[in-house]
Structure formats: structure tokens, C-alpha cells
């Protein structure tokens, strides 16, 4: 296990469903395990009413695939619990991914049937990665997609991710990372700060005021310790009295006041007025109380300086999973020739075969179509932007996609892709995907 | 960091919001850090329409609190990023929790304002645990609560947790654990099997059929490798043909067929008939396609033998977080006397003071009220069952609550608490909490 920024990355190989390994065993038995295969991760549809999704998690995934090995602990466990037979354990003990991985860059927008990740390897190698790939992409894309809408709703005002307490402790770290990729300014999560070099911030909670005998004593302690530029939480008792006390103690250098309850629109108005009347024109107003993209949009006209977003961000604002699936779309036959495959059951028809993907842009550089094709990509892309990037080649991770560098690159990609999408992505109302997905076969 | 069942537990101290540590710094400055405090985790309300919640995560939390230390990596990070000052770093470097923790046993039912966890320590110690406590209890209780409803809907038919791919990879492990506590039979998640000794199971995916030239070849390989008692996925192409092929190859020893798409009620009926006609009365039918508690209830009259549940389980079936909060309810003053405290802002009024909690039972042993009181518990409990258990005493973890042992104990507690609740908990329709929460002050 490798170490990055003081973080011992965990074993990743058992973040896996039991059946991936029993399928491996049966496929080793039949020989199909060694067939060359193409697996694809994609969403059949976007969450209800969403216009677009944002790919999240790719960098984390690539780091984890590099660590996806079966050591003594894992092999002993699988032997003791009789999950698979000795032949399969031998295979696993020697496993390290040796194929190719392509996909949409992290931070990129996606639409229904966009081939977000393509894994080309033997069936065995691609099969046992399935659960892990989907866990990461489904979670992180759900968070990045929700965060992107919040950033759009917030306009130029910074958003701070502070949802750690409302999601599992490791999900919280992943959510902080995904939020930053989608444009959040900073996070409250310290572990995310350590692992990915993210900026962390924080103010104070009501308990801090309550542990002191008076609000004044609490504010005095915070200002003395953190400086006048700190953000004071002013709604523990009476907001107006809180603001007056804060200004009295910190003077016109007071950094910010935080509002965490009540009618935020009305409250922000009169608190702004009060601050201005007291000579604190430069003291900012931070609002936090259970915000989502709709509440942020509703605060557009209120004199608010930044938003702290918690629960709705880390739960994907109504869509806690991106519902991505991972399907075998092509594999070799006994002659070594590739054959497109797809499940025949109704309502779940997949489009077989190795894909290419392009975003068609008009002469103003605005996206008009998502082109997903089978066969050879047309030579002249014209205004089309190719979407598939190579991440892994013959098992070797290509540089630039992982770690803190990968987060910055994904954040940049998100900002760029958003500029390219049609204006309809700025609408929070339910609707169709912002651009249609068009299939080609060449 | 301690090791349990081959699992190196991670650093837990940075699963923490930035502001917990800046509050600590300011409270060290004012001296309030050393005041004795009582913090309480509770839900102001249940998720919309739910009748009850189930406490999940306590065992995981207690394991993690024992590991909640700040080593060189953590201290260096906090120093380098200037999160807190040197005095605070000194405090953190020497930190280990030394107080008491009480709470509802894991697996216990809870209602609005039930004091699920009570932390008694200095303000400093209780403050810096806040984010970590809420992350774990909010996630695991959300999953356990959803799982409990599914188990009720499933009646005597076993449920299998198979949602790993639809949630973050570590959340998947926690979700598997919470599902087992609430009565699930087994999980697909191998890491959960390793850490907590949970039973893992698995069948095969459509890709396994598709990588073979024919469904027959795929089934042959699976039967040859896993035995006739395996479960065959029969809906890759044509369900009827799939069932016939499965029976032909495996004979009457065929363990199960799995249906993962289509109209499951109708399909289960005729597949059961077909299996019986073919002489496979003992072959079970497993259904899996996007089930939640409502879909499970709708399948009550269908000849189904077990349910595989994924997405809706790991996302809390519409309530992905339990919305628990963690509030300072009491602390000492300068004379060392305890003072009840509560935030005054409207709509969020807390009930100050150290609580006791009892479940009032009628003469038939059925719960009628949740009694939450301040002050001394009445001497004669009568039919009341005391709910608060001690988990940690002077920083020492009391035995029985953690590890695989804790999971079994919590599963037993869940089964027992469900027998005690009024029959209304079996209704999936939206409604009020099954029993009212009554406040007492003695």
C-alpha cells in the first residue's frame, strides 16, 4: 500500500461483491476468464429532472486500482470462508491489473449513455474490478453533480462544503473532494485537507457559545484566540443582540457573522443593514441552515457573502447515487475476434461494442450533441471534442490524474465543461438532458 | 491503531470538522475547555412518515473513539496548515478520551428526542468527537432504519444486502454491517465479511452469461465450478428458455434461479409453476431488481424465496441520513455546579440537562411511551425498561459492544425491540411515531 501525504491507503481488493470472485472461479473453469473484454460504465438516465451529470471519483478510483491486490490477509480470509477454490486463490494472489482504462476526464459533464469509463482487459481482470469501480464513480459523481448545481446557483459567491456529519466518515472525505472538483471553495473536513491538499475552514458552533456563561465571553474568547477576522455565530440567543455584541468586541475588523437558523432572506437583509449602520460594511454574512441549490437560488437577491452547505450536498440533493452500471459490451470469441454483446431483457437494452465519444460543438463553442459511436471515430472531428482520455495503459497508471494534482485538473475540467454547455444547465427546474445523446455506427 | 480480524483500523481523529479544533483552541484560551459537559446525540424528528428509527453504528463508533488520537502525521498537518496554535497542538498530542459514554444499545428502536448517545467529559473532549460521532450514527442509523422496514416487509423470507456498488466503498462496508444488525441474512460485501465475520453470498451477473458463447455454456461452467446448488441468473436472454436450460443442466438439485428484471410478481408466479412442472419444487426463486420495502411488500403473495436488496437499502430508502444532532445540554459553571443549557433560537429549542430514558411497557409487554426525563430516574420503574447503557467509563471501553460480538448483540437487540413495539411499526404507510415521547422532570 502506498502512502500519499501521510495517508496509508487501505486495502481495496475486498471492496468487492462476493459474486465477482465466484464468477471469476467459474470463468477460470470454462476458460472464458481469459477472453479479451470491453466493459463500460455509464448511466442509463440522469436523476429525475437533472440536465447533466458530472463525473467524480476517477482519480480516487485509479489510485485504488493500483492498490487492488490480494495479500495474505485477503487470501486467508477467502480460503477460510470458502468463497472460492484454490485455483482461483492462486489467480488472485498474482493479480494486478494489466489492461487499459479509458474514460471521461474527472470533472467532465456526462449525459445518458455517455461511456464514462471503459475497461479493456481479460474478462477476469475487468470482472473483479466491477464493484469497486461502481462504488466510487456512483458516489463521487452523485456528489459532484449536486455540487455543480449548487455552484451554478451561487453565482460568484463561494460555497463551503460542511456536510461531514451527515454522511459516513469516509464518504465525507470523498464528498469533500468531489465538492471541490465541482467548484466549492473549501471544506470543513480535515482528513480531506490532509489527503488532497484541500483548503479547510471553520467557524464555531452553538455549543461553544453555550459552554461560556454569556455570549460576550464566548465571542471574547474566540476573538482573542482567532483574531477579529474570525466568523462569529450570532444566532444562539438573539440575533440582533449577537450582532451588536460581535461588533462591539471585534470592531470594524470583524470578519463575518454566521446565520444558521430562521428566515435567512429577511434576516440577511436586516443584519446587513445593522452591520452597515454600525460601520461594519466589510463584515461578511455567511449562511448555513440546511441549504440546497434551491435555497441558494432563493438567496440570490439577499446580501449574503457565502454559503455553507451540508446535508443536501453529501446526500446528492435527492440523488445519493448516480445509478451508473458497468456492462460487458464486447469480448473475443474462440478465434480472438471481438463480438459485441448485450443483454436481451426488455427495458435494459445496452448498446454493444467499444465506443468512441465526442461532444459536438457549434460555431460559438456551445455543446449541441453527445455523440456516442461504435466502430472507428470519424477522421474529421470538425467542431467535435473527443471525450475519452486514457488513464491506464498495460496496467501502468498514466500521470496527472491522481492525488492533489488530479483534483486540481478535475476542478479545471469542470469549470471548462460548464462554460461549453448550453445555458439550460443554469436552470434548476426539472427537464430533459441539456443535450441529446446521438448514436453513430461507422 | 489496533488490528481486528486482519483489519488495520484507520486514523479516526481527522474525520473531524475544522471548527471542532478552532473551538477547542478558543475554549482552551477562555478556560471553558475544562468545564465538565454533557453532550447528547438525538433526532429532532424521524424521516418523513417513518414510525421509528433503529440505532446503528455504536459499535463502530466505540472502536473508532478508542483509536481517536493525534499522532505525528496529524499534528504535522495541523501545524503546517495553521489550523490551530501550538498550545492546542500540545493538547491534541496528549489527547485520549477519558470521560463516560452512555447511550441506546445498537439495534435499539428510537423516537424523536430519544437520547441515543450521551457523552460526559470536559467540553474539550466531547467537542472534538462531535463530527465523528454524528458521521457514524447518522449513516449507520439511516441504513439500519431502512433495513428494519425491509425485514418487516419480507416477513420470514431472508433478505440479502447487495448494495455495495451504489454507495461509497467504505459506506458499503458500514451499510452491510447495519443491514445485518437489522435482520438481513447476509451480504455481498467481502470486506464486511472480513471485518465483522458476516456471512457473504453471491450468484452471477449478466456479464458472466455474455462472456460465454451461449447461456448453456455459462450455466455449465457455473454448475461445474460451484455445484448444482448454485443460483443461476436466468433473465439474460429469455427467462423461460433460461429456466429450462438451468433445470436441464443442474437437475432437481438446482439451488435457485435469480430474476433481476421485468414484472417480478407475474414472473415469479409462472417461473414457480414452470420449476414445479419440471420437477424442481425445491429450487428457490431469488428476486433482486431495484427492490425497496414497498416492492418487497408487493411481492408478499408471490412465490418468492428471498430478496436481494441494493440501492434503496444503502441510500436509506429516501432518508440517506438520520439527521441526528449533537448538542451541549449541560455544563459546569465556575463553582463546578451543572447548569442546563439550550439554544434559544426558534424551532430548534433543545431540552437542556442530563437525561434518563425509559420505554414504558403495558401489561402485555408492548411499548406505549418513550419517557425522556431530566433529573433523577424514578426509583420504581414498574413496567418501564431503562434504555441507557454505559459504553465507556473513565475512558475505558466496556466489553461486549464492539467487533463481531457487538454486531451479534445488536442484531439480537433489534429482534427483541421489534417484538416489543406496537403493531403499527409493521405499516409502511406514512404516519406518526409509533409511540409518543413524553418528557418528565423530577
From TrEMBL, chains A, B:
A Pfam family matched in the record: NAPRTase_N
Record PTM text: Transiently phosphorylated on a His residue during the reaction cycle. Phosphorylation strongly increases the affinity for substrates and increases the rate of nicotinate D-ribonucleotide production. Dephosphorylation regenerates the low-affinity form of the enzyme, leading to product release.
Q: Does the keyword Ligase apply?
A: yes
The enzyme's main class, written as a single word, is ligase
Which Gene3D superfamilies does the record cross-reference, listed alphabetically?
Aldolase class I, nicotinate phosphoribosyltransferase
Q: Where is the Nicotinate phosphoribosyltransferase N-terminal domain?
A: 14-138
Q: In which pathway does it act?
A: Cofactor biosynthesis; NAD(+) biosynthesis; nicotinate D-ribonucleotide from nicotinate: step 1/1
The answer, when asked if Ligase is one of the entry's keywords, is yes
Q: Which GO terms describe its molecular function?
A: glycosyltransferase activity; nicotinate phosphoribosyltransferase activity
Q: Name the keywords, alphabetized.
A: Glycosyltransferase, Ligase, Phosphoprotein, Pyridine nucleotide biosynthesis, Transferase
E.C. no: 6.3.4.21
InterPro entries according to UniProt: Aldolase_TIM, NAPRTase_N, Nic_PRibTrfase-Fam, Nic_PRibTrfase_pncB, Nicotinate_pribotase-like_C
Q: Which reaction does it catalyse?
A: 5-phospho-alpha-D-ribose 1-diphosphate + nicotinate + ATP + H2O = nicotinate beta-D-ribonucleotide + ADP + phosphate + diphosphate
Q: Which NCBIfam families match?
A: NAPRTase_put (TIGR01513), PRK09243.1-5 (NF006698), PRK12484.1 (NF009131)
Q: Which family does it belong to?
A: Belongs to the NAPRTase family.
Role, per record: Catalyzes the first step in the biosynthesis of NAD from nicotinic acid, the ATP-dependent synthesis of beta-nicotinate D-ribonucleotide from nicotinate and 5-phospho-D-ribose 1-phosphate.
Q: What is this protein called?
A: Nicotinate phosphoribosyltransferase
Its source organism is Arthrobacter ginsengisoli
Amino acid at each position: 500500500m502506498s502512502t500519499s501525504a501521510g495517508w496509508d491507503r487501505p486495502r481495496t481488493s475486498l471492496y468487492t461483491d462476493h459474486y465477482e470472485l465466484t464468477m471469476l472461479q467459474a470463468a477460470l473453469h470454462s476458460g472464458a476468464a481469459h477472453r479479451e473484454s470491453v466493459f463500460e460504465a455509464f448511466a442509463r438516465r440522469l436523476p429525475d429532472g437533472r440536465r447533466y451529470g458530472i463525473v467524480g471519483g476517477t482519480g480516487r478510483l485509479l489510485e485504488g486500482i493500483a492498490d487492488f491486490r490480494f495479500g495474505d490477509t485477503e487470501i486467508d480470509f477467502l480460503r477460510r470462508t470458502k468463497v472460492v477454490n484454490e485455483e482461483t486463490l492462486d489467480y488472485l494472489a498474482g493479480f494486478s491489473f494489466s489492461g487499459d482504462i479509458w474514460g471521461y476526464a474527472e470533472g467532465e459533464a456526462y449525459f445518458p449513455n455517455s461511456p464514462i469509463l471503459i475497461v479493456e482487459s481479460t474478462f477476469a481482470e475487468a470482472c473483479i474490478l466491477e464493484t469497486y469501480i461502481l462504488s466510487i464513480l456512483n458516489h463521487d459523481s452523485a456528489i459532484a453533480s449536486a455540487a455543480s448545481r449548487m455552484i451554478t446557483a451561487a453565482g460568484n459567491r463561494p460555497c463551503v462544503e460542511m456536510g461531514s456529519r451527515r454522511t459516513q466518515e469516509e464518504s465525507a472525505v470523498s464528498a469533500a473532494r468531489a465538492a471541490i472538483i465541482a467548484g466549492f471553495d473549501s471544506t470543513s473536513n480535515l482528513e480531506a485537507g490532509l489527503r488532497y491538499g484541500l483548503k479547510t475552514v471553520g467557524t464555531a458552533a452553538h455549543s461553544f457559545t453555550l459552554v461560556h456563561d454569556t455570549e460576550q465571553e464566548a465571542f471574547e474568547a474566540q476573538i482573542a484566540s482567532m483574531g477579529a477576522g474570525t466568523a462569529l455565530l450570532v444566532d444562539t440567543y438573539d440575533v440582533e443582540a449577537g450582532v451588536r455584541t460581535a461588533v462591539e468586541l471585534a470592531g470594524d475588523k470583524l470578519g463575518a457573522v454566521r446565520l444558521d437558523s430562521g428566515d435567512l432572506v429577511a434576516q440577511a437583509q436586516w443584519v446587513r443593514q445593522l452591520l452597515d449602520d454600525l460601520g461594519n460594511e466589510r463584515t461578511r454574512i455567511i449562511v448555513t441552515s440546511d441549504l440546497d441549490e434551491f435555497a441558494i437560488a432563493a438567496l440570490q437577491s439577499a446580501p449574503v457573502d457565502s454559503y455553507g452547505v451540508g446535508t443536501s450536498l453529501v446526500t446528492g440533493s435527492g440523488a445519493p447515487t448516480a445509478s451508473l452500471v458497468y456492462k460487458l459490451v464486447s469480448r473475443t470469441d474462440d478465434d480472438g475476434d471481438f463480438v459485441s454483446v448485450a443483454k436481451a431483457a426488455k427495458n435494459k437494452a445496452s448498446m454493444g461494442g467499444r465506443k468512441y465519444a465526442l461532444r459536438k460543438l457549434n460555431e460559438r463553442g456551445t455543446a449541441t450533441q453527445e455523440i456516442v459511436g461504435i466502430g472507428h471515430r470519424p477522421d474529421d472531428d470538425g467542431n467535435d471534442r473527443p471525450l475519452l482520455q486514457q488513464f491506464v495503459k498495460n496496467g501502468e497508471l498514466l500521470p496527472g490524474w491522481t492525488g492533489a494534482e488530479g483534483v486540481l485538473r478535475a476542478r479545471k475540467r469542470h469549470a471548462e465543461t460548464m462554460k461549453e454547455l448550453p445555458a439550460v444547465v443554469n436552470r434548476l427546474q426539472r427537464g430533459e438532458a441539456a443535450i441529446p445523446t446521438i448514436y453513430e455506427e461507422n
